Every structure is written in C-alpha cells, then in structure tokens.
Predict the structure.
Amino acid sequence: MSRPFILGLTGSIGMGKSTVAAMFAGAGVPVFDADAEVRAMQGAGGELVAAIEAEFPGSTGPGGVLRDPLGAAVFGDREALARLEGIVHPAVVRRREAFLLEYAGAPLVVFDIPLLFEKGGADRVDAVAVVSAPEDVQRARVLARPGMTEAKFAHILSLQTPDAEKRARADHLIDTGSSLEETEIAVERLIARLTA
Ligand SMILES: CC(C)(COP(=O)(O)OP(=O)(O)OC[C@H]1O[C@@H](n2cnc3c(N)ncnc32)[C@H](O)[C@@H]1O)[C@@H](O)C(=O)NCCC(=O)NCCS
Ligand SMILES: Nc1ncnc2c1ncn2[C@@H]1O[C@H](COP(=O)(O)OP(=O)(O)OP(=O)(O)O)[C@@H](O)[C@H]1O
C-alpha cells in the first residue's frame, strides 16, 4: 500500500514553526503536532500525569502538569530533563504511529517536531523542512513572550541544535524573516513540489 510522503518540520525556539505548521494545515495537509500531543497528554486527565507526578512529586495538580514549575525543575538539570523525556517521548511515538494510520491515504503529511534533530527523528521522515529567521528576529520574538527572560532563552538555545546546523542539514528551508505572505507562498510552493 502506498503511504504518505512524510515531511518533518522543525526549527529552533521562536523561528515561526507553529505559524508555518498552521499554514500547512490551512492548505489541507494533515499535521501531527508533537507539542500539542504532549500538552494533551500532560493536561487534565492526561495519560502522562500520573507517571510525571510519581517521578516529580508536586509537579501536577487538578489541571494536569504545572508547566512552569516542571519547566523550572528540568530546564537547567539535564538528568531531570532526561527522566521527563523518558516518560514523554515513547508516548509521542505511539501517537505518531496512530496518526499515520489515520492519514494513510494522504499524499503528504507533516510531522511538526520541535526536537527533530535533537532526538534523532530526522531518520524517520522522508525530508526535513527547517523554519528559520535571522537571529535578531528570533530573539525579539522570544523575549516578547510573557515570562521569558534572557537567561531562560539562552538555556533553551543551549539545549537545541544550533540554527546554522539545522539549516545545513535541511532538505528545504522556510524563511520567516520577512512577511507572512511571503512565507505562505513558500509553503504553497513546497507543497506543490512535494505532491507533484
Ligand atoms: C517541561 C515542560 C512541561 C515545560 O513546558 P513549557 O510550556 O513551560 O515550555 P514549552 O514546552 O513551550 O518549551 C519551551 C521551549 O523549550 C523547548 N523544549 C521543550 N522540551 C525540551 C527538551 N526536552 N529538550 C530541549 N528543548 C526543549 C521547546 O521546544 C520550546 O522551544 C515541557 O517543555 C515538557 O514537558 N518537555 C519535555 C517533553 C518534550 O521533550 N517535549 C518536546 C516535544 S516532543
Ligand atoms: N513570515 C513569518 N512567518 C512566521 N511567523 C512570523 C512571520 N512574521 C512574523 N511572524 C510571527 O512570529 C511569531 C512566531 O511564533 P511561533 O509560535 O510560530 O514560533 P515557534 O517557532 O513555533 O516557537 P516555539 O518553538 O517557541 O514554539 C508569531 O507571532 C508570528 O506571527
């Protein structure tokens, strides 16, 4: 049976990956959103809440995982982050397999995976598109977010494969440094190429 072409979509913090993923979805391409899956599984009644509470006591409440305290506990402690990933990542893989079964007949699907290079997922997709923008644009976007600090930004960057390396390893580059309209046109062109 034929299967969809799997495009992995990734990019560092603030590069515009979520915005670009929404453009693919708007064009009718099924998008697997790894972050959204994680949030759902960590939210109220989510399947990962009990395991996370057991590993990080006090890190959950009635609404599920308390993201800020858990983030504070793991961003800055690689060993703790690895323990959290050990709980979260296998569940994401299961969800992704289910998604592929659901959209088995589509010509193209997108895996929106922030940590595609970091966690070795690049081998499980047919091509990788990297969303990127100049460093100053990235910095301005990220620091404009509520609760973000220079120190937190620097630390998250240190956990992520550098943008230059991502771009070097990309099969396709999607630039978000200029207007949304230009990015949208680039996305449409890429869809046309991949489904031709
Ligand atoms: C610790 C948690 C609860 C903090 O949530 P919070 O809403 O505060 O932050 P958010 O998830 O938006 O992440 C902020 C930034 O850190 C990056 N980031 C998140 N997890 C990781 C990680 N394991 N390694 C490197 N960078 C990471 C994200 O890509 C993003 O750029 C959450 O990040 C989490 O559960 N992370 C571990 C699971 C994971 O690896 N998720 C990534 C998608 S599969
Ligand atoms: N050409 C463009 N393409 C994409 N986003 C743009 C563009 N111009 C401006 N933006 C803005 O930049 C921001 C990018 O945020 P977005 O949440 O998409 O980034 P992200 O890479 O998914 O971040 P994170 O990894 O932190 O979740 C949005 O507010 C978006 O409107």
The chain has a mean pLDDT of 95. Residues 11, 13-20, 114, 141, 176, 178-180, 183 surround adenosine-5'-triphosphate (ligand 2) (CB under 6 Å). The CA atoms of residues 74 and 81 lie 5 Å apart. The chain has two domains: 1-30+107-196, 34-102.
